[in-house]
Specification:
GO terms for molecular function: RNA binding. This is RRM domain-containing protein. The termini are far apart. It contains 1 helix and no strands. The chain has 51 residues and is an all-alpha fold. The longest helix has 8 residues. It is elongated. The chain has one domain.
Amino acid sequence: MAGKEDYRIFVGGLSWNVTERQLENAFSRFGKVLESQVNEPVFRFNNWKSG
């Protein structure tokens, strides 16, 4: 993309109740938000037997 740069940011530590729309609203005052994504937390449980 000549003359156009893409910027991405990672925002950590959000409440589990934050929606994509709330995230867009919070950052839209700094410029146009093209896309937002709030990922669901992933839990992985490894049950290792000791001994």
